[in-house]
Design goal:
Residues 4-274 form the CN hydrolase domain. Helix 10 (328-347) packs across helix 18, helix 18 (546-559) packs antiparallel against helix 19 (564-570) and helix 22 (613-623) packs parallel to helix 24 (682-696). Helices cover 41% and strands 15% of the residues. It has three domains: 3-325, 4-Layer Sandwich (Nitrilase/N-carbamoyl-D-aminoacid amidohydrolase), CATH 3.60.110.10; 329-574 and 581-591, HUPs (Rossmann fold), CATH 3.40.50.620; 593-743, no CATH class. It is globular, with a radius of gyration of 28 Å. With 743 residues, the protein is α/β, with parallel strands linked by helices.
């Protein structure tokens, strides 16, 4: 029995932090070797960090990566263990995203990435080229810093694999797993038994199952061992990399790491039986037939055995385990909480300031920070030295004190402020105060009417005789909107003022970061004031839908211990920027002219299914068949595109937000579209009108049970079955059908 102990890992790397990245890489190799592993794989571009972006265009980034590699090779870390390490490499003037295989202080092979990620959040073709000469190797001249350490002048470079005395090992880097003709297929048919995937894959709600299923499918069809390593944490941008390193054998998961963790280094090991792989492959006739005609990938012979004799003490095949998945509401709590912790500790700040309105969005942000504090205290109790050091610094602890409870830690880190006006209700003021108390936040109740009145007085002094009125008092829509925007923008100014001065007021060092709380649906519709409290340093919920946020509030009330969240979720969403009267109370959905549920569907159809106005209208006619007439559907679609295009300019100033949804409208990195539109959409809307005339004659009159939502339409009833992207009319209402095709 050929039993091999393998190690994969999740590393919390930080773009351009070469010293820290090297230390974490070394620690993972050390832990893998101490565990008895003979092969270790690390994340994609681990030495420099995956998120270097345009720094990859700088020669220094490549040079420093090789310098880090030289330090590893100069030590004894690779003695007796094969290490697969990610770094950028330039060959013949072309830059590649590469894997370098090392053993006993020598480099065995440099393997460039064959297929690059260039969709959604990824721009790899901006910095790298793919290796296009499949199944070809050439000779690579090593940089001087490596030659001095290893004595090697050249190494093989290209699409090849390592042939050890007892097995074959090859790479498949991140995106390559997601491609239709993935490299693991040809490699497996060519006899390679171990595929190592060093990845830089970000978290997205409901995405992990896609990743796991692809790896299980790969090893179920072809047989073999699949090792998956990933980054974990915030490496300096909007993405959170969610770890979950794992090892699979012939479709069975035998090891899985954590998806969300405070650990900077997490090593996952498993013992696998390679004879089980060869036995599996040998029993499937069609696999043998395809393997017999598969073109061979060139290999590098290595005089080294990965396998060791089996013993029943600590070297026998690992048993299959059940894959651990978090539900989406746990993901909303844990992913952004870990992202906030990384951002806070790496920014040098000593806490967060959150404008807390008592509404759903800001309350969810407060709860996520509370969850962050719970995770930190848990890690402190488990003895995580890095978390302890960071917590002591940011919490300003002295005399060997450490955080003892989440609420005590939150009191030091989270500062909330309710900025009320004459339009604010007692209910929201009270909810904000009670929630802050449950979390442990340091809370302020500030009345900003004096500042609002000062600005109105200034306006009236400039334009005598012009006095602004709300619409409920007889004012125009222009006056009404201006009065609301004044309040909203003042809150942003006060928030940043308090963030800079609160530590000074309390005689503590440092500064605070301001947290935003606009959700993805409001960004899509533009239902926010430019430069209001949606403008902040970072926003943990900017990529999360309103529907998911409300479900998270219900979950958080039960699982985080913040009971007020249930009350927040049950209250109608309102901006409270207009006076409350006997006959009028401002609410978000009436203001927007559409429900949050509808906004979610518009967002998925626009981004995930790539619908313009006409195709969105056609799909929604199917979606709402029997509930709305074609003319009613047309009006809803026109309203959405009108307000979307009017407000698109706001996306250019959107606060950097945690990416969690595939239909994020974030303009700077993800959703690249113009921000000046012909908001009348004359050609598209005219075509919709023509289709309305056509469909009116063939569609039946809406039925009462459908209109009153007593019964789902056919497309709504089919939504739970539409986990793919085949029928937009059904899938647009199912968050599970999120198009998770990014690596």
């Amino acid at each position: 029995m050929r039993v091999v102990k393998l190690a994969t890992c999740s590393l919390n790397q930080w773009a351009m932090d070469f010293e820290g990245n090297l230390a974490r890489t070394k620690q993972s190799i050390r832990e893998a070797r101490n565990a008895g592993a003979t092969f270790r794989v690390g994340p994609e571009l681990e030495l420099c960090g995956y998120g270097c972006e345009d720094h990859f265009l700088e020669g220094d980034t490549l040079k420093h990566s090789w310098e880090c590699m030289a330090e590893i090779l100069a030590s004894d870390l690779t003695n007796g263990i094969v290490c697969d390490i990610g770094l950028p490499v330039e060959e013949c003037g072309v830059r590649y995203n590469c894997r370098a295989y090392c053993l006993d202080g020598q480099i065995l092979l440099v393997r460039p990435k064959l297929y690059l990620a260039n969709d959604g959040n990824y721009r790899e073709l901006r910095w790298f080229s793919s290796w296009k000469r499949l199944r070809e190797l050439e000779t690579y001249q090593l940089p001087e810093c490596i030659r001095e350490v290893t004595g090697q002048e050249t190494v093989p470079f290209g699409d090849g694999y390592l042939s050890f005395e007892d097995t074959g090992v090859a790479s498949e880097t991140c995106e390559e797993l997601f491609t239709p003709s993935a490299p693991h297929i040809g490699l497996s048919l060519g006899g390679v038994e171990i595929i190592a995937n060093g990845s830089g894959s970000h978290h997205q709600l409901r995405k992990l199952n896609t990743r796991i299923e692809l790896m299980q499918s790969a090893t179920s069809k072809c047989g073999g061992v699949y090792m998956y390593a990933n980054q974990q944490g915030c490496d300096g941008g909007r993405l959170y990399y969610d770890g979950c390193a794992c090892i699979m054998v012939n479709g069975d998961v035998v090891a899985q790491g954590s998806q969300f963790s405070m650990k900077d280094v997490e090593v996952v090991t498993a013992c696998v039986d390679l004879d089980a792989v060869s036995s599996f492959r040998g029993t499937i006739s069609s696999l043998r037939e395809q393997a017999s005609q598969e073109p061979r990938t060139p290999s590098i012979a290595v005089k080294f055995k990965l396998s060791r004799p089996m013993n029943m003490a600590n070297h026998f095949p690992s048993l299959p385990i059940k894959v651990r998945y978090h539900d989406p509401y746990e993901e909303i709590a844990l992913g952004p909480a870990c992202w906030l912790w990384d951002y806070l500790r790496r920014s040098g700040a000593t806490g967060y300031l959150l404008p807390l309105s008592g509404g759903a969005d800001s309350s969810s942000v407060a709860a996520i920070v509370g969850c962050m504090c719970q995770l930190v205290v848990k890690a402190v109790r488990e003895g995580d030295k890095q978390v302890i050091a960071d917590a002591i610094r940011m919490g300003n602890y002295r005399n060997d004190e450490v955080p003892e409870s989440a609420d005590e830690f939150a009191q030091r880190l989270l500062h909330t402020v309710y900025m009320g006006t004459e339009n604010s209700s007692h209910a929201t003021r009270d909810r904000a105060k009670r929630l802050a108390g449950e979390i442990g936040a340091s809370h302020l109740n500030v009345n900003i009417d004096v500042v609002v009145k000062a600005l109105l007085t200034l306006f009236e002094s400039v334009f005598p005789g012009r006095k602004l009125r709300y619409k409920v008092h007889g004012g125009t829509q222009t006056e009404n909107l201006a009065l609301q925007n004044i309040q909203a923008r003042i809150r942003m100014v006060i928030a940043f003022m308090l963030a800079s001065l609160m530590p000074w007021v309390r005689s503590k060092p440092g500064f605070l970061l301001v947290l935003g709380s606009a959700n993805v649906d409001e960004g899509l519709r533009g239902y926010l004031t430019k430069y209001d409290c949606s403008s902040a340093d970072i926003n943990p919920i900017g990529g999360i839908s309103k529907g998911d946020i409300r479900a998270f509030l219900r979950w958080g009330a039960l699982n985080l211990g913040y009971g007020t969240l249930a009350e927040v979720e049950g209250a109608p969403p309102t901006a409270e920027l207009e006076p409350i009267t006997v006959k009028y109370t401002q609410t978000d959905e009436i203001d927007m002219g559409m429900t949050y549920e509808e906004l979610g569907m518009y967002g998925r159809l626009r981004k995930i299914f790539r619908c313009g106005p006409v195709s969105m209208f056609e799909n929604l006619c199917i979606r709402w068949h029997g509930r709305l007439t074609p003319a009613e559907v047309a009006q809803k679609v026109k309203d959405f595109f009108k307000y979307y295009s009017i407000n698109r300019h706001k996306m250019t100033t959107l606060t950097p937000s945690y990416h969690a949804e595939n239909y994020s409208p974030e303009d700077n990195r993800y959703d690249l579209r113009q921000f000046l539109y012909n908001t009348r959409w004359p050609w598209q809307f005219r075509r919709i009108d023509q289709l309305v005339d056509k469909y009116e004659t063939s569609m039946p009159e809406p039925l009462t049970e459908f209109r009153q939502h007593m019964q789902p339409t056919a497309a709504e009833a089919a939504a739970p079955n539409s986990t793919g992207l085949g029928v937009p009319a059904a899938s647009s209402g199912n968050p599970q059908a999120s198009g998770n095709l990014q690596k």
